């Protein structure tokens, strides 16, 4: 039998050595012209095509590339831009302005792309908007792709209209559902033209990416949107001759429900339906539906969000199940489950890992390696996914996994889970519950703090000097001792600034951390980290997710040295600063052989030990960040509760060993809180600092309505913007907060960490925040009015001259 066809759905665009990041940031810094930046970007794009072609991929995604964010690209191309950007000429400069903001023009909001750690710019729509499409950059990229690969190998990636609207927010005060329906009706002609123009360039296939299809199971509204738009969009496409590209509707990040699949299978003009077989139960859906008639099944069997090689023990049974459910006549195409932008580019570059841990490195497959896997898996499918020929097609993969397993503990997933449960059981009644209830312990915590205590979320600017230092340490041009001393000067600066500004709870500033999760990955046993395994997080910003590869444990204290240095420099309480178990798990690549709950518990047990050591070092307030709690939540209601149960338990396991007088903070950002408020309350954190500055008071109102009893730190200003909030801006926020939540339970801070800002932005912003808190305190004391507020502000200003 001939091998099945293979296809890609997109390739990392940041470049093997972050060439795109460097070009874009150089352009922003005025060091590279727009033309030179675009030339650098096109080189990255073209090299990705060459790599895919050389790997023998049959259908290669084109049009998936963009300079900042794919959703933003559509907002700009459709000209669906908020009023404040309407006067700016469309194109690259306007897209960057919408992403990053400008004086008087706040940036578009940024939030998680479905349940990933990639963040997109949220379209801000109004029901009365009129799309004015001009997809110049997208079509020119598709045209270059066709020229480079030949039309027969090019598949044009198009962000589907329903997903675009699903990801948008409506700012006109009306119903978002009505807004989506109205705009979708207007988008039909824009998409008809886009598909026709893309097809006319000679591509073999139009891939309509619609991850929102996976949410249709629980949304009659989404189902209605799909049903109303798709037939109308597709009917105008030529069915033969020039411009008659095949249409592939692509879903990912979960399965689709039976009704949605039946609808897709019956859609006229659609030649292929793509499903994600790495999450949910797409095999079950297919089995219940039966063979696709006259359509190809795009089988997303290579996990686009996992850095691990395909494991024959998993993939061969999966292929057999798919073949059996799809029936012998349905053509099956082997694909990654989604765009490969969620994994790093090339595992072959990881020389350090290959040398130090060859068995781990050998079991990895980043985007470049996954291209080869497509071919091997297609060959295994052609061989019936059984017997010697199938095994031969995947023999290198089997050997890699055998070596990997031999290098780790050898415990099966179940045995590993049982061993972890045993450690938890040994903690007895105190495993998940603090010694005193919140109402009693809060009275013992941090005596002497004022009303509206001020703090920050943890990180301070990661300056070029800090990054240079780390680079020197890596290259061996400075020793650890010198590095530590230099880090201490950054800590001293951060403490000096905070003391001078009059903040109440200080932080050491996280200067020693490249990235919070990467830092803990480097401290913990059982985690591997890469040198060049960058994954785009948003825009030009990247992260290097650690890779969990065996049982996690804490060989030595992780944060105590820096805490002690910081606390020795001030009498104010310094927060111990940790990343929570769920966030470490969700922002790492988990191991494939053990369930996520067990991995979370192992991380929690390590953090529990760290909290004990922090307390022994004199720490009275410890923040355990959980910005990714919500992100890991499955879309399906049935799975959501199970996840939240073990996720919250993992946080409790990490934190409840703290003494009653230790104040435990947590922090959450970049997410919706409304649909997991019960879980947030169950975390039982004494203080929860949440991103809030862009949501008016609605988040706070939801917390209040849900009867949230703990202290809350709603962000008082947006840290993504270089704009410095005034005293009045922050005071107005605090007054508004007071209308929704008891003032005596509010902690004052920014929205998130300040690592991406500059000191010259941070200092005045915090000075104004402290002044605003003082002004509010004065107002509450009843001695005030505006004059006292101004006097308090002046007093704070006069001692804040550290810069
Ligand atoms: C809170 N957020 C986080 C998320 N996920 C995480 N894993 N971590 C997070 O903090 N998800 C949600 C949000 C996303 N937010 C951000 C915010 C900022 C960044 C970011 O700034 N990333 C940096 C990379 C940071 C880093 O590790 N830098 C290294 C330097 C590496 C380097 O480039 N070295 C140079 C030499 C430098 C020199 O000599 O000057 C080189 O090798 O050539 C470090 O600090 O050492 C970014 O720039 O993209 C990400 C997500
Ligand atoms: N403590 C971290 C939290 C980021 S979500 C920081 O301040 O960067
Ligand atoms: Zn944050």
TrEMBL record:
L-homocysteine binds at residues 457-459, 625. The active site is at residue 720. Binds 2 Zn(2+) ions per subunit. Zn(2+) binds at residues 667, 669, 691, 752. Residues 6-325 form the Cobalamin-independent methionine synthase MetE N-terminal domain. Residues 452-774 form the Cobalamin-independent methionine synthase MetE C-terminal/archaeal domain. 5-methyltetrahydropteroyltri-L-glutamate binds at residues 21, 117, 541-542, 587. One of its GO terms (molecular function) is 5-methyltetrahydropteroyltriglutamate-homocysteine S-methyltransferase activity. L-methionine binds at residues 457-459, 510, 625. Pfam families: Meth_synt_1 (PF08267), Meth_synt_2 (PF01717). This is 5-methyltetrahydropteroyltriglutamate--homocysteine S-methyltransferase. The lineage of its organism: Eukaryota, Sar, Stramenopiles, Ochrophyta, PX clade.
């Amino acid at each position: 039998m001939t091998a099945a066809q293979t296809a890609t759905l997109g390739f990392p665009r940041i470049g093997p050595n972050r060439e795109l990041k460097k070009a874009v940031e150089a352009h922003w810094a005025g060091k590279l012209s727009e033309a030179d930046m675009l030339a650098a970007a096109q080189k990255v794009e073209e090299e990705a095509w060459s790599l895919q072609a050389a790997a023998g991929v049959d259908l290669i995604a084109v049009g998936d590339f963009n300079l900042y964010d794919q959703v933003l690209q559509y907002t700009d191309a459709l000209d669906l831009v908020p009023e404040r950007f309407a006067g700016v000429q469309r194109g690259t400069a306007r897209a960057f302005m919408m992403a990053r903001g400008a004086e008087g023009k706040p940036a578009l909001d940024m939030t998680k792309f479905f349940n990933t750690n990639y963040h997109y710019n949220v379209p801000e729509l109004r029901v009365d908007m009129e799309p004015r499409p001009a997809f110049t950059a997208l079509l020119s990229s598709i045209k270059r792709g066709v020229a480079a690969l030949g039309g027969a190998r090019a598949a044009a990636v198009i962000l589907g209209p329903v997903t675009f609207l699903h990801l948008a927010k409506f700012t006109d005060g009306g119903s978002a559902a009505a807004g989506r329906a109205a705009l979708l009706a207007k988008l039909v002609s824009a998409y008809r033209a886009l598909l026709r123009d893309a097809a006319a360039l000679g591509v073999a296939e139009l891939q309509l990416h619609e991850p929102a299809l996976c949410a249709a199971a629980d949304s009659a509204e989404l189902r209605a949107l799909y049903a109303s738009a798709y037939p109308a969009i597709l009917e105008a496409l030529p069915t033969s001759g020039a411009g008659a590209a095949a249409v592939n509707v692509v879903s990912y990040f979960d399965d689709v429900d039976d009704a949605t699949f039946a609808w897709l299978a019956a859609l006229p003009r659609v030649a292929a339906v793509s499903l994600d077989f790495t999450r949910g139960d797409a095999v079950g859906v297919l089995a219940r539906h039966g063979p696709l008639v006259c359509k190809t099944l795009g089988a997303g069997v290579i996990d686009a969000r996992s850095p691990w090689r395909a494991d024959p023990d998993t993939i061969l049974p999966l292929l057999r199940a798919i073949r059996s459910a799809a029936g012998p006549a349905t053509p099956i195409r082997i694909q990654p489950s989604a765009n490969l932008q969620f994994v790093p580019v090339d595992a072959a570059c990881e020389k350090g890992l290959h040398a130090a841990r060859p068995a781990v490195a050998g079991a990895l497959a980043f985007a470049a390696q996954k291209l080869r896997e497509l071919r091997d898996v297609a060959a295994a499918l052609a061989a019936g996914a059984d017997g010697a020929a199938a095994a031969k097609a995947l023999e290198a993969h089997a050997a890699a996994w055998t070596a990997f397993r031999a290098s780790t503990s050898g415990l099966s997933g179940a045995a590993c889970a049982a061993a972890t449960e045993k450690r938890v059981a040994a903690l007895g009644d105190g495993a998940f519950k603090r010694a005193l209830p919140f109402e009693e312990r809060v009275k013992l915590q941090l005596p002497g703090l004022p009303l509206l205590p001020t703090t920050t979320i943890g990180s301070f600017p990661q300056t070029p000097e800090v990054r240079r230092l780390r680079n020197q340490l890596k290259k061996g041009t400075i020793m650890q001792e010198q590095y530590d001393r230099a880090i201490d000067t950054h800590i001293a600066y951060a403490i000096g600034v905070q003391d001078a500004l009059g903040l109440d709870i200080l932080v050491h500033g996280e200067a020693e951390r490249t990235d919070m999760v990467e830092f803990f990955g480097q401290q913990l046993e059982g985690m591997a980290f890469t040198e060049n395994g960058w994954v785009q997080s948003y825009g030009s910003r990247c992260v290097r997710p650690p890779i969990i590869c065996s049982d996690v444990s804490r060989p030595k204290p992780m944060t105590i040295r820096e805490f002690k240095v910081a606390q020795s420099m001030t009498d104010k309480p310094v927060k111990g600063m940790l990343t929570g178990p769920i966030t470490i798990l969700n922002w790492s690549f988990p191991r494939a052989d053990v369930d996520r709950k067990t991995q979370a518990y192992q991380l929690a047990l390590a953090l529990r030990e760290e909290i004990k050591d922090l307390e022994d070092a004199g720490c009275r307030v410890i923040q355990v960040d959980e910005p990714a709690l919500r992100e890991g939540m499955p879309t399906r209601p049935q799975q959501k509760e199970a996840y939240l149960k073990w996720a919250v338990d993992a946080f409790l396991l990490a934190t409840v060993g703290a003494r009653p007088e230790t104040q435990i903070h947590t922090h959450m950002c970049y997410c919706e809180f409304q649909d997991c408020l019960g879980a947030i309350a169950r975390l039982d954190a004494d203080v929860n600092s949440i991103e809030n500055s862009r949501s008016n008071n609605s988040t706070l109102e939801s917390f209040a309505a849900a009867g949230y009893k703990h202290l809350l730190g709603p962000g008082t200003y947006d840290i993504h913007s270089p704009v410095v909030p005034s005293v009045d801006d922050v005071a107005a926020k605090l007054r508004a907060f007071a209308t929704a939540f008891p003032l005596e339970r509010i902690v004052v801070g920014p929205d998130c960490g300040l690592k991406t800002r500059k000191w010259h932005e941070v200092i005045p912003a915090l000075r104004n925040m402290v002044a605003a808190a003082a002004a509010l305190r004065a107002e509450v004391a009843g001695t005030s009015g505006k004059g006292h507020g101004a006097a308090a502000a002046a007093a704070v200003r006069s001692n804040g001259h550290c810069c």
